[in-house]
Automatic annotation (TrEMBL):
Residues passing through the membrane, by range: none
PROSITE patterns referenced in this protein's UniProt entry, alphabetically: GUANYLATE_CYCLASE_2
Coiled coil: none
GO biological process, alphabetically ordered: cAMP biosynthetic process; intracellular signal transduction
An MF annotation (GO) of this entry: adenylate cyclase activity
Pfam families linked: Guanylate_cyc, TPR_16
Domain Guanylate cyclase stretches: 27-142
Designated name of the protein: Guanylate cyclase domain-containing protein
Organism: Sinorhizobium terangae
Length: 602
C-alpha cells in the first residue's frame, strides 16, 4: 500500500510539473566549434583559453545585444533563444563576420570556427532550460552548417528573406539525425551576391507581361534508357497543368525539348526562350523507389526560387506521376507569386504598370488589417485606372473593401464597392480561378448564399485543381455554411499544396470553425493558435482562440487572447463580431456566448 501511495505521489508531482511548464514559440540558436577534439588534442590550454575569450568577448555580448538569452553552455557549444527570428539571424551573422576578423591573424589549423543552426519552433521552458522538437532541429541544423556558416530552417528563411544583407542557398529537404520528417534547409551566404554576366546573348526576347516559365526535360539519373518515358511523361504533364493557370505564360513542350540531352546554362535558356523562370529536375529510380528533384530558377541570375525532392514507390507509375505533378504545380504557383512580388517591389515607381501595382498590393491585402487594407486599395485603384478590365485587381479590391467593411465600422459604401468589384471579377474572370474564388468568398460573406458561392468555387477548382488559394477560400465558405468535413478536406489540401503560404491563416481558420461547429474544442483551439501564428495581426483568429479556450475552461489563456485581441482591434465589440460573422445566426451566437464570458466590450 505504501509503495502504491508513493507511486501515485510521484505521478501527481509529474503531472504538476507538466502543468507548470511554460510553452512558447522561440527562435533557437545552436552553435558549436568545428573540429574541437582535434584542436584540443593539438593544444588543450590555448584552445580552451581562446574558446572562453570568444564566448565572453563575442558570443555572450552579441546575444545580449540582439535581445537573446544564453540558455546554457554545452561543452564547446552554446544554446540561446530569441523572441525574434530576425534578431537571432542578425546575431548569428554578426558572430560569424566577427569571427572572420578575429581569426585573421591565426594560422588556419589553429583557428576556432563555429557552425550555427537556427530554427523557429515550439519549446518547453523548465527551470531556465528549454526542451522540445524546436531545440532538437536547431541542434541538428548546427551539425550540417558549413564551418564558419549558418544553416536555418525554412520557417526562419521565410520570415527573414531580404531584410538582412545575406542571401540564402536552398539545399533542399534534409533528413537530420533522429528527426523523422525531412527539414528544408537553407545555408546562408554572408556577402551579397551579384549575378554572373557570362553566357548572356545580346538580343534577348521580350518578356511577356505575365510571369513566364519553361520546363526543361528532366534528366534520367537511373542509367536505364527505358526510364526516359517516365521523366518525359512527368514533364509533359507538368507543362499541361501549368498551362491551365491563367496567370502564367508557359513555353510549349516542343520548344523546351530542344534542350534535351544538351548541357544547359539556365541564363542562356531564359534569354533564348524569353522567360523569367526555368524549371529543371531529375528522376532517379533505385529498386522500387523513385526520387524526383526539381528546382525553379529565376533566369537573369540563375538564383533559386524553389526546390524540392519527392520520393515514392514505383508500383503504380501513373498514380505516382499524378501525385508528383500535383505537388510540384501546387508549390510552384505561390513560389512564383512570391518571386514576382519581390521583383515588383524592386521596380522604379515610374516604371510600374497595372500588373506591378497589383503585385505590390498583394502583401498588404494578405495582412488583412485595417491600415494595410487601405494601402492595398490605393495600389489596386491605381492598377484599375491603368487597366479597368483587370479581373484579378477587381477581385482583390472586392476583398479589401470586404475587410474594410467588417473591421472598420460597417460603412455601406465599402459593401457597395465590394459587391461591384465582385461582379466585375466574376464577369471578367470567367476562366481565372483566383478571381472566381476570391469573388465567390467575398460575395458569400455579404449574401450568405453559400450554395452559389460553392458552385463558383468548384468551377475555380476545375480550372486549377492545384490552387492552394482556391482551396483555402473554398474551405472557409464550406466552414461558414457548416459543411464541416468538406471544409476540413479542402483546408488540408490548401496547406499541403502550399505549406508556407502567407494566406495559410485562411485554412487554419476554416479548420478552427469546422472543429468548433463539430464540438471538438481542443482541435479548434489548436488550429486557432496556428492561425494566429500564420497572421499575428488578424484579429478574428484571436477571437476564435479565446472562444475555444473558454469552452475548454482555460480562462487564463482565453483572457490573454482577449487582451491581445483588443490591442490589435481597439474598436472590437462582441456585438460587432456577431454582425461581422458570415455564419448562420445560431452558429455565430455560440461563438458570441463564449466571448461573453470574457472581459470584452459587449
Amino acid at each position: 500500500m505504501n509503495a502504491l501511495t508513493e507511486f501515485y505521489g510521484m505521478l501527481l508531482d509529474a503531472i504538476r510539473r507538466r502543468a507548470s511548464m511554460d510553452r512558447r514559440l522561440a527562435a533557437i540558436l545552436a552553435a558549436d566549434v568545428v573540429s574541437f577534439s582535434r584542436l584540443m588534442e593539438a593544444d588543450e590550454s590555448t584552445t580552451l583559453r581562446s574558446l572562453v575569450a570568444h564566448q565572453s568577448e563575442l558570443l555572450n555580448p552579441k546575444i545580449a545585444e540582439h535581445n537573446g538569452r544564453v540558455v546554457k553552455l554545452i561543452g564547446d557549444g552554446i544554446l540561446a533563444e530569441f523572441q525574434s527570428v530576425l534578431e537571432a539571424v542578425a546575431c548569428a551573422v554578426d558572430i560569424q563576420r566577427a569571427m572572420i576578423i578575429r581569426n585573421d591573424p591565426i594560422p588556419p589549423d589553429h583557428r576556432i570556427e563555429f557552425r550555427i543552426g537556427i530554427n523557429l519552433g515550439d519549446v518547453i521552458l523548465e527551470n531556465g532550460d528549454i526542451f522540445g522538437d524546436g531545440v532538437n532541429v536547431a541542434s541538428r541544423l548546427e551539425g550540417i552548417a558549413r564551418p564558419g556558416g549558418i544553416a536555418v530552417s525554412a520557417a526562419v528563411r521565410d520570415l527573414v528573406r531580404e531584410r538582412l544583407d545575406i542571401t540564402f542557398e536552398d539545399t533542399g529537404d534534409q533528413y537530420l539525425k533522429n528527426i523523422t520528417r525531412p527539414i528544408r534547409v537553407y545555408q546562408l551566404h554572408l556577402e551579397a551576391q551579384t549575378p554572373d554576366a557570362t553566357n548572356l546573348i545580346d538580343t534577348p526576347l521580350a518578356l511577356p507581361k505575365r510571369p513566364s516559365i519553361a520546363v526543361l526535360p528532366f534528366e534520367n539519373m537511373s542509367g536505364d534508357p527505358q526510364q526516359d518515358y517516365f521523366a518525359d511523361g512527368l514533364v509533359e504533364d507538368l507543362i499541361t497543368e501549368l498551362a491551365k493557370i491563367p496567370s502564367l505564360f508557359v513555353i510549349a513542350r516542343n520548344s523546351s525539348y530542344f534542350y534535351k540531352g544538351r548541357p544547359v546554362d539556365v541564363k542562356q535558356v531564359a534569354r533564348e526562350l524569353g522567360v523569367r523562370y526555368v524549371l529543371e529536375g531529375s528522376v532517379r529510380q533505385s529498386a522500387n523507389r523513385i526520387r524526383i528533384t526539381g528546382q525553379l530558377l529565376e533566369g537573369t541570375g540563375a538564383t533559386h526560387v524553389w526546390a524540392d525532392r519527392l520520393e515514392g514507390f514505383a508500383e503504380d507509375l501513373f498514380d505516382l506521376q499524378d501525385r508528383f505533378v500535383t505537388s510540384i504545380v501546387g508549390a510552384l504557383e505561390p513560389s512564383i507569386r512570391r518571386a514576382e512580388i519581390e521583383r515588383a517591389l524592386r521596380k522604379r515607381p515610374d516604371a510600374l504598370d497595372a500588373y506591378d501595382l497589383y503585385l505590390k498590393a498583394l502583401p498588404h491585402t494578405y495582412a488583412n488589417s485595417p491600415a494595410e487594407t487601405q494601402k492595398a486599395l490605393l495600389l489596386l485603384e491605381a492598377a484599375l485606372k491603368r487597366d479597368p478590365n483587370y479581373a484579378l485587381a477587381h477581385a482583390y479590391a472586392a476583398w479589401c473593401h470586404e475587410q474594410s467593411y467588417f473591421r472598420c465600422g460597417f460603412d455601406e459604401r465599402d459593401k457597395t464597392l465590394a459587391l461591384e468589384h465582385c461582379n466585375a471579377a466574376l464577369n471578367l474572370g470567367v476562366d481565372d480561378p483566383q478571381a472566381l474564388s476570391i469573388a465567390a468568398f467575398v460575395k458569400s460573406n455579404f449574401t450568405h448564399d453559400y450554395d452559389a458561392a460553392i458552385i463558383v468555387l468548384d468551377r475555380a477548382l476545375e480550372l486549377n485543381h492545384n490552387s492552394a488559394l482556391a482551396y483555402g477560400f473554398s474551405a472557409l465558405v464550406n466552414a461558414h455554411s457548416e459543411r464541416n468535413e468538406r471544409a476540413i478536406e479542402h483546408a488540408l489540401l490548401a496547406l499541403r499544396l502550399s505549406p508556407f503560404d502567407p494566406l495559410n491563416y485562411h485554412p487554419y481558420c476554416a479548420l478552427t470553425l469546422a472543429h468548433w461547429f463539430s464540438g471538438r474544442f481542443g482541435e479548434a483551439a489548436t488550429y486557432a493558435a496556428l492561425a494566429v501564428g500564420a497572421n499575428p495581426n488578424f484579429s478574428v483568429a484571436y477571437a476564435y482562440f479565446a472562444a475555444a479556450q473558454v469552452e475548454l475552461n482555460n480562462f487564463e489563456a482565453a483572457g490573454e487572447a482577449a487582451k491581445r485581441l483588443v490591442e490589435i482591434a481597439p474598436s472590437f465589440t462582441i456585438g460587432g463580431f456577431t454582425r461581422m460573422g458570415p455564419f448562420r445566426p445560431a452558429s455565430i451566437q455560440s461563438l458570441a456566448n463564449a466571448l461573453g464570458k470574457l472581459p470584452l466590450p459587449p
